[in-house]
Amino acid sequence: MALGRVATRRPVCIDRDATIVAASRLMRAQDVAELVVIEPREQRRVPAGIISARDIITRIVAFNLDAAALTVGDILWARTAAGHVGDGIHETLERLIATGSDALPIVDSDGNLAGVVLVDDLLRALAET
Questions:
Q1: Closest by alpha carbon to 3, among 102, 81, 127, 119?
Q2: The domain that contains 95 carries what CATH number?
Q3: Which domain holds residue 25?
C-alpha cells in the first residue's frame, strides 16, 4: 500500500517565521501534535520539516526559553527528508523508526506538499492488511 492512501491530505501547516507561541496555539486549535513547516518556493509549498509538541517541550519549555521570541525556524531540525506519495508503508515506518520521528511530510512528483503521515497512520494501515 502506498503512502498516498494513508497520509493525511490536509496537514496543518505553518511558516518557519511563525513564533513558537503561534505554533503552540495552532496545535491546540487544530488538536494536533505536529505541524508541517513549509517554505513557499516559486508558488509551490515545499516541506521544510516537522515541528512537534515534543520539540517545543524539550527544546523551549525545558530550558525556560522565551517562546514568543523564538520562531519555528529557530528550533527546526536540519531539513527533514520527505516521503513520496508512492513510497511503501514498510520502508516509511523503518525510516521513521530510524530517525525517531513520529511524522513525515509527503510530497508529490513535483516536490509539493501532498500530506503528512504519522506512525499511527502506518500502524493502522498495517493492522488492516
A1: 119
A2: 3.10.580.10
A3: 3-128
